[in-house]
Amino acid sequence: MNKRYPVTDLIAELPASVPFVGPEAAERAMGRKFAARIGANESAFGPSPAAIAAMEKAASEIWMYADPENHDLRAAIAAHHGVAMENVVVGEGIDGLLGYTCRLFVEPGRHVVTTVGAYPTFNFHVAASGGALHFVPMNEDREDPQRLLDEAERRDAVLIFFSNPNNPMGTCWPADQVREFAQAVPENRVLVLDEAYIDFAPPGTELGIDPARPNVLRYRTFSKAYGMAGARVGYCIGEAGLIAQMEKVRNHFGMNRAAQEGALAALGDRDHLRDVYAKVASARDRLDAIAEGAGLSAVASATNFVAIDCGRDASFARQVVAALAEEGVFVRMPIAEPQARCIRVTAAPDALLDRFEEALRKVLARLR
Amino acid sequence: MNKRYPVTDLIAELPASVPFVGPEAAERAMGRKFAARIGANESAFGPSPAAIAAMEKAASEIWMYADPENHDLRAAIAAHHGVAMENVVVGEGIDGLLGYTCRLFVEPGRHVVTTVGAYPTFNFHVAASGGALHFVPMNEDREDPQRLLDEAERRDAVLIFFSNPNNPMGTCWPADQVREFAQAVPENRVLVLDEAYIDFAPPGTELGIDPARPNVLRYRTFSKAYGMAGARVGYCIGEAGLIAQMEKVRNHFGMNRAAQEGALAALGDRDHLRDVYAKVASARDRLDAIAEGAGLSAVASATNFVAIDCGRDASFARQVVAALAEEGVFVRMPIAEPQARCIRVTAAPDALLDRFEEALRKVLARLR
Predict the structure, then answer these.
(1) Cβ of B190 under 8 Å from any chain A Cβ?
(2) Which of A4, A105, A121 sits opposite B6 (nearest CB)?
(3) Which of A222, A249, A331, B92 could form a disulfide with A233 if both were Cys (CB 3.0 to 4.6 A apart)?
(4) Is the Cβ pair A252, B19 closer than 8 Å?
(5) How many other β-carbons are positioned within 10 Å of the β-carbon of residue A47?
């Protein structure tokens, strides 16, 4: 290979890909800010006031590195979930933790199974570790455990990615079926269970998997229900020895000190969370109604976003997304067919949804 | 290999190592806080008030992800250094960027050269990428360009690590000699030039390497002079195509939004920096005097810390570090002989150095 830089062959062959383009890039291109930022499933309901206060206080203490063991935060997370501290690793968002996970299990010659249109950042990390990705389709807009298991068997895959609830469709499986799925994963494979949105799911979705099970890793985040996407705090729950492997690759001093303090405070404010759940549920209903009012249909959501079926193909949905952006409304859409018939809109305060409703009406009138 | 988990062979064989134990771990073990935290080269002079204000303001906006392109911060850094934005990548501290660097260039079968006792986190990342590390000794407490070049040739190393000024000794080379060194590195190797402490170095240390040079990467941080260690903001300057390779492996959404805002504000406050430089210079003088007063000698420092030669072996220095901890004073020491005859003390406000002076007197009286 004729290489300009002495990078590894793996890196030289990797295309320069970016999992997501941020709304700021679009804003720079447009030369103005979005009026309604409801495309990245951020929580415009905001973080707990206690978390804000903790981060403000930490600002003047930022001259100190954060505790590289994330001790206090891990202890609080462990207590919250009824597991041991050794079952928890904290990282720079689920994205960071998925990256570490791929470094543990993936290398050239290894195989990974996921779903067409599922979380692209996971795919990015698999590729960067040299793994071969294999895809199964969704089944009625849900990730399909049986197909994933079958494909993993066929490919002898080391990782199986599964998000519950699913992003970008908002669909989910009840806990019983996920538990069955997890139990069916053989010990030579690891189930990567992305639960970023599980806080919003109906009762009975939350999984009660024994943390002693050595091949299930569950990923949680402060970015969604806790309203702290910009803080970059995620965590992973799993069997202690498996979690300990992360120590071999993680950026020990990668966490922001104010983010640690903010997450700790956020975890303690259950009232704020209950308030957010209620507001998200109400915003989902509103989004359903907006969709219906526009002659579209919404996919039933177990998350803080709603996939709205635009009723045609991906090309049409893409036009809707672009036209909404021109109206100052940032939304995204699924990356793959047939889900890309939809646009994905984040639950948000009424003022932002008003703006979306108005823009959608205008845009559809123009495009139809 | 009999493995409990389906990790790669590389990971299975890696020892569970941690580059640094944080002071919080010692505090938890002691059951009390350090009175003087002067061991991690954090700046107790604190960040710019403008940076604190920016981070406080960002706390309530933390529900939004940070711009994954770090656009505004990169633009400001580029302008500050007189390079193009494409020559700059921002990451989760130099630690994070060193990790990404290793992923670009290192894999099993590849070789890396560094100095005995140089930055252990770099070694951690090389090992995690499967590289073979080769070490050359320091020469009179300085990293030795010629030895590094020779060993890189002998091992056919892809990366050469060099810090200027050096951590943990605080020594440095003038820019002319570093430039010669960089020019002598052949194109099939990359010079990893860690400049974390260069803001404190005498005029004439700052390097003027052409960013078009395709095999030099320079690492800078907001953790030291800018007083924002807990924010985790580092950056790397290099040739545009080389910097672009980082896009293939980095955690695009890894940066904390408040940290971005804080760093941007900090970069603009040159008055605060000048004030910090003066205070650090004065604290270094004070540390020299404290060492002399205790019958010890200080290594001349170009950084915000001073290596104090305890005059005996590593075992004695280790006793001094432990005894200082008992007195509530956190310092560290070099990890390798013969530099481990020293303790490493961070420049800090007088109240903290008073505490150190008193504790040192007490500790030495006991140990001698």
Answers:
(1) yes
(2) A105
(3) A222
(4) yes
(5) 30
